Structures are given as structure tokens and as C-alpha cells.
Amino acid sequence: MNRFYGNLLTFGHFVADFYQGALPALLPFLVSDKHFSYAAAAFLIFSANVSSSIIQPLFGICSDKISVPWTLPLGVLLAGISFGMSGVVDNYWVMAVFIALSGVGIASFHPEGVKLANTFAGENKATGVSRFAAGGNIGFAVSPIITTEVLLLFGLKGTIILSLPALIMCIIFLIQLPKLTKNKAQVTVKREVQAKNTADEWKPFSRLTATLTCRAMIFFGLNAFLPLYWIHVLNQSKRGGSIALSTLIIVGAVGTLIAGRMADKFGNRKVIMTGFLTLIPLLFVFINVRNVILATLLLIPIGLSLYAPYSPMVVLGQKYLPNHMGLASGVTLGLAVTMGGVISPVLGWISDNYGIHTALSSLTILPIIAVFLTLTLTIPKVDLNRDSVNKVKFNVTRSGN
Predict the structure, then answer these.
(1) Cα–Cα distance for residue pair 46/339, rounded to 1 Å
(2) Type and span of the H or E element at 383
(3) How far apart are CA 291 and CA 298, in angstroms?
(4) Which candidate, 27, 46, 342, places its Cα nearest to that of 159?
(5) Architecture of domain 3-388
(6) CB-based contacts of 309: which residues, under 8 Å, 6+ apart?
(7) Rounded to an integer, what is the distance from CA 109 to the centroid of its chain?
(8) DSSP strand E in 144-303: where?
(9) Which of 71, 175, 219, 297 is the residue whose CA sits 20 to 30 A from 198?
(10) What is the per-residue pLDDT for 396?
């Protein structure tokens, strides 16, 4: 594993996903300061996710055909500057456009980023990709706390201050881009001969995408409405709501790292199934708790269970489409994940009409669906071919001895 470039990509992912995590922390301020309805506020998340879901697979396709490392600095910069402008403008629809552009920037970073993370990871793909994913998760986690503090201090126009990390990261990427591109070309990726001759498995990949979408819906539902739930149901402060969201995601980042190592040891499908199975009872208990301390403690196992399937599913997607890894990355990190954001307006409508508790309660059916979908996931042919070749090599070695 090339640790320097792996760490560079991880930190870049931290900055890119910082702006994805900042948006939910912005919603309570929009609701209180600009008097947006829950549905109007949730539509902003929807606009960011729709733009991402369209553009991310396209960048993935480009990544399969040509090397596009320039999307790393460009994506980070567009994500940060656009989010920074969103709090400065007064017009709702102009704000929605800036937030959508921020989503495009985040989307353009992911396909090439995770593909390079896979390249520099060496043999332990799940571990390498989990580190990359954890960088984004941590950025997502600390973002609500930092965003809330900045907005409490400077008001909505403080979003422009939050664009500074993107500018700094863009400069770092531009400085390192020539060396990054050169080292990528020099890295010897040890791909088995049979992997090159393995056909893409589109049917299991489509089922994996459906599974990812279920997980993304749970994620975006909690991400968008957990701070509001903390404020309006558990009667806590805005700061308390952002801390609750950050707790969930920080724990999730730890879970992502653990899951990557477990997936390399025990297999991707087992880790995915374990995560969804444990999430089912946890969500049922969580929505029936009114004690803020107990609710906070429950965020720990919920975060571990919710994030455990994430990096194994990304790696599994790359194995299902060994000839189109960029597209697989674009879909698993982009389309499937951001399509989970389409649930935000639905939850916003439920919240406006039936309350936030009812909206979050509706999420409990999704991990059950995900379990049944996980049962349909097959072992990738790339792994089967690799195991067959290793068995032949082992038998030849024994015969030679």
C-alpha cells in the first residue's frame, strides 16, 4: 500500500464530504431564520443528491476510459465554494442551485478518488477502500459541529468561511497532481489473469445497487432529520442536535475501518449481512426511547451497524464489474448513495403532516428489505476464479515437492 497517496486521497475525501455533512446542520438555521418548512428545507438536500446522482456515474464512465485526476482538485473546490455561497444569497432557488453545484463537486471527486484508493491499496482492497471511506465519514461527522458553531457565531453568511478548507485542499491537490499521476502509472497493480478475462456481472451488481440504496435511505433519513428530532422531539438545543449527528457519524467512521479489515478476513457478504441484521432491532428501540442519554448511547451501536456494510459493498461492486471499476465506483459511491436522498422530501412531507417521530419510524422497514436483498448477492466470479487458480498453484506446488 502506498500510504502517502492513500492518506492524501483520504484527507481529500474528508474535505469533500465535509460539505455533504454541512448541509443537514444548515437546515435548522434555515427553518428558524428564513422560516422554511421542513419540506422546503429537505428539498435542498434532494437538489444536492439529484445533481450528484446524475453526474457521478458519468465521471465514473470517463474514469474507465481515461485518467481524470483533475476531478480531485476541481471537485473539492466546486463543493466548497458553492456551499459557501449558499448561505450568502437570499433567494431560495438560487440557494438550491448553489447547493446542487456543491453536490456536483462532491460527485466529481468520488469515482476517481475511490479508484485511485483501490489502486494504491495493494492486495487488501477492503482495508484500503475503508480508509478512504472513513476519511469521508469523519469529514461528514465533524462538519455538523463546526458548521453549527460557525453559523451560531456569524449567522448564515458564515458559510463563506466554511469554503476555506476546500480552497486549501484544492491547492494541495494541484501541487501533488503531477506526482500523483506519475506514481499511479508506476504502481504495479497485481491483477490475476483470470480477472482480466472475467465478464462483468450486471445482475448481481443491480441487486447490490438496490441494497446500497436501502442503506442510503436510512443514512440520509437520519442525517437530515436526526438534528431536528433532537431539537423538536427530545427538546435539546441546536448544538445538541449537531453533536448527536456527529456522534453517529464518528462512530460510523470507526465502524467503517473495522468492517474493512473484517471483510478482508471473513468476506464482504458476511459483514454486509451482519450490519443490516443488527440494525433492525436497534432502530426499533431507538424510536421508542425518550431519554436523551439512552438515545445518545444507542447511536453508538446504530452507527457501527449502519456503516459496517458501506466499504464492503463498494469493494463488492468493483468485483462485480472488474472491467468497469470507475462506473462501479460512481454508482456505489454516487448513484445508489445519493438516490437515497430522494427520501428526504418524503420524510419532510411526513414530518410536516404527522411529525418527525413518524418520519423516522418509517425508516425501520428498510434494513429488513436490505437483509433479503443481501441474501441474493452471489460470490463474485473474480473471487471464484482467483480461488481456483490459487488451488491449482497449491496442488502444483505440492506435486513438485
Answers:
(1) 9
(2) helix 381-400
(3) 11
(4) 27
(5) Up-down Bundle (1.20)
(6) 211, 215, 259, 271, 272, 275, 276, 370
(7) 12
(8) none
(9) 71
(10) 41
pLDDT of residue 400: 52
Domain boundaries, the chain: 3-388
Identify the helix (H) or strand (E) that includes residue 400: helix 381-400
B/e letters for 42-73, b = 16+ CB within 10 Å, e = fewer, are bbbbbbbbbbbbbbbbbbbebbbeeebbebbb
Are the C-beta atoms of 309 and 280 separated by less than 8 Å?
no
* Pure H helices in 37-91: 38-65, 71-86
List the chain residues with pLDDT less than 70: 1-2, 53, 63-64, 66-67, 121-125, 182-197, 334-341, 385-401
Nearest to 174 by CA among 61, 62, 8: 8
Q: C-alpha distances in angstroms, 323 versus 36, 38, 389?
A: 46, 43, 19
Q: What span, in angstroms and rounded, lies between the C-alpha atoms of 73 and 81? A: 12
Quickly tell me which residue has 475525501 as its cell.
13
**Cell numbers given for 158:** 458564515
**Cβ pair 242, 22 in contact under 8 A:** no
Q: Summarize pLDDT for 191-221 with one digit per residue, the tens.
A: 444 445 578 899 999 999 999 989 988 988 8
Neighbours of 207 (CB within 10 A): 18
Give CA–CA dist 205/320, Å, rounded: 6
- What is the gyration radius of the CA atoms in the chain, in angstroms? 21
Cα-Cα-Cα-Cα dihedral sign, residues 370, 374, 376, 380: positive
Non-local CB neighbours of 31 within 8 Å, separated by 6+ positions? 37, 38, 41, 228
Phi, psi of 209 (to 5 degrees): -60, -40
How far apart are the C-alpha atoms of 182 and 45, rounded to whole Å? 37
* 358 vs 207: CA distance, rounded Å: 28
